[in-house]
Amino acid sequence: MMLARLSRAGELAPLWIPDVTHEAVRDLVRARQAASNDIRKSRQRIQSFLLKHGRRYSRKPWGGQHRTWLANQSFDHPAQQIAFANYLSAEGQAVDRRTELDQQIRELMPSWTLSPLVDALQALRGVAFIIAVSVVAEIGDISRFETARHLMAYLGLVPAERSSGSAVRPRGITKSGNKFVRSLMLEAAWCYRLRAKVGERLRRRSDGVPEVAKEIAWKAQVRLCGRYRHLIARGKKSQLVTTAIARELVGFIWAIGQQIQPRQPQIS
Question: How many domains does the chain have?
Fold first, then answer.
C-alpha cells in the first residue's frame, strides 16, 4: 500500500531494465576492456625487458617498423630469447582477442535497440565507435536522466564538498559511479585541446547521423575547444581543465540522448 501511494504521488523513480541484447553488448565491451588491459600490461613487460638490456626504440612504437625491429632483437642467452619471444606472443594474442571482440561488437549492433544512439554520439569529437558503444552499454538509455547534471553526478564528474555548519569546503570530483566510463570521458576530452574543426575522419563518422546530433556536436566543439584554451590561459592545470571539459562533454552527450530515440525491438 505504501508503494502504491508513493507511486500515485510520483515519489518513485522509474528503473531502466536492460534487455538481453544490451547485456550481451555490455559483456563484450567489458571483455574488450580486459583485452586492452592485457595489451597494455604485455607492452609494459616488453618495454621493461628491453630497457633492462639497454634496447631503446626512438620512433613511434607498436607500428609496423617497430614490430619488425622487435622481431630482429636477439639476446646472448637462449633463455632470455625465449622469455622475450613469450612476451611478444602474449602481446600478439591479446591484440588478436581485442580485434575479434571489436568485430563481434560491430556484428551485434544491428540487433541492438540503442544502436541509433551509438551512431549519433560518434558525431562528437573524441567519441569514436568503441567509446560510443562503451558509454551507451554502461549507461543505458540516456534519456532516463532528467537533467545533464544528473548524468554528470551518475558518472562522478561533479565537484564534491565537505560542509559543516556555515563552512563549505569544496573538494575534487566525487569519482562515484562507473570508473570505466569516466576514464573514457577524460580520454575524449583530451581531443578538445585543439581548435574546432570537422576533419575527414569525423566527417566519415557523421555520415547518416541526424542533423540535430550534428548541430549539438558542433556546438560542443566550439564551446569545449574555446573553454579549454581559456582555462589553460588562466593558468589552470591541464588535469583540472581536462576534467572540466569531460564534465561538459557529458552534458552534450545527454543532449544528444534526449533527441535520439531507441529503435523498436523486432518481434519474431
Answer: 2
What region, left, alpha or beta, does residue 59 occupy, with left being phi > 0 and alpha being psi -120 to 50 degrees? beta
> Which residues does 59 contact at the CB level (< 8 Å), separation at least 6?
65, 66
Dist CA 12 CA 4 (whole Å): 10
Residue 12 in grid coordinates: 518513485
Structure confidence by residue, pLDDT tens digits, 25-58: 999 999 999 999 999 999 999 999 999 999 999 9
H runs (alpha helix) in 72-175: 78-108, 115-121, 129-139, 148-154
- DSSP codes joined into one string, 172-215: EE---S-HHHHHHHHHHHGGGGSPP---HHHHHHHTT--HHHHH
**Shared domain check, 222 and 129:** yes
Instruction: Name the band, by pLDDT with cuts 50, 70 and 90, for residue 267.
Output: low
Domain range for 238 is 118-259
The answer to whether residue 266 sits within a structural domain is no
Considering the domain architecture, whether residues 190 and 242 belong to the same structural domain is answered as yes
Q: Report pTM.
A: 0.89
